[in-house]
Amino acid sequence: MVGVMPLAIALGVIGIGALLFISFWEQALKRLSFSHKGLERAVSAAHVNVRPQDFILIVVAFVAIAWVLLAFFLRLNLVSGAVTLAAVAALGAGGARLWLGLRAKAWQQNFLGQLELVLRMMSSSLRVGLGLRQAMVLVTEELADPARHEFSRVVGESNVGVPLLDALDQLAERVPAGEMQMMARAIRVQSQTGGDLGQVLENLADTIKDRRRLQRRINALTSQGRASGYILVALPVFVGLFVVVTQHQMGEALLFTSIGHMVIGAVVALEVMAGAAIAKILRFDG
Fold first, then answer.
1. Model pTM above 0.70
2. Other C-beta atoms within 10 Å of 233: how many?
3. CB–CB of 47/103 below 8 Å?
């Protein structure tokens, strides 16, 4: 009877996971960007030079290699192998989405870091008599990526017939940040109502500078909380490695038994939930 218990627990976990998978399938598709269009947008926003199909194949290859290595070193049986495969696949999909999101966020942050300079350069260009499109061409000639890449794309779209204001709106969609949306809306409103666009862009640059100063202050105030969160998340990992290295009997029970594999899975799930909770606590929505 005791020997049947791990199998029964594992089957129960698989059953619950299957029910949750069926119940939240559509939401999972949206959240993980498994749809082709969503994945294509994510790959494009991250500026990864691969096709979405190739990116999926790379993720599948990493998942397969990781599962084979785990199955070999942990000596997994059939049930544990199936559960581990599902867990590794979920982690692989989530990790791929996280990696794309981090690359896209890094590109966006680098672009926003240049936006104040872009606005001041465009404002100066307009004040000396250049048009809006020529001011953007000057930005592409004087600044480095990502500003050069994004505004070159705006200028290129205007060359093939897309209205310049619509191309700016598309840039605001590619860089979904408040500063870029303010810029696109300010230019569109000014084009309809008239006025000194150079002064408008200069005021917007001052606003972005103040927002950056506030964000740096927020980061300084939450730095201790972030450091505490990193320590709390990393502590169970180091404790587990210490136990495996120093306590061989406990380490073998943890790595090479079904109960030990369940414990590892529970710890990984709790670690993910703890990291998400800490990130939510430290998030500031201004």
1. no
2. 15
3. yes
Instruction: Give the CA radius of gyration of the chain.
Output: 25
Cα 85 to the center of its chain, rounded Å? 24
Calculate the alpha carbon distances from 249 to 14, 71, 241, 253 in Å.
28, 20, 13, 6
Provide the 10 A C-beta neighbour count for residue 248.
10
Q: DSSP of 41-52, one letter per residue?
A: HHHHHHT-SS-H
Question: In this predicted model, what pLDDT tens digit does every residue of 188-245 receive, in sequence order?
Answer: 888 888 778 888 888 888 888 888 888 888 888 778 777 887 887 788 888 888 888 8
Tell me phi and psi for residue 48, to 5 degrees.
-95, 125
- What's the whole-number mean pLDDT along residues 169-195? 83
CATH class of the structural domain 112-211:
mainly alpha
Long-range pairs, 179-185, Cβ under 8 A, ≥24: 179/112, 179/115, 179/208, 179/211, 180/111, 180/112, 180/115, 182/207, 183/115, 183/119
Domain edges within the chain: 112-211, 218-286
Joined together, the tokens standing for residue 130 give 């250049």
Rounded to an integer, what distance in angstroms lies between the CA atom of residue 186 and that of residue 167?
Answer: 14
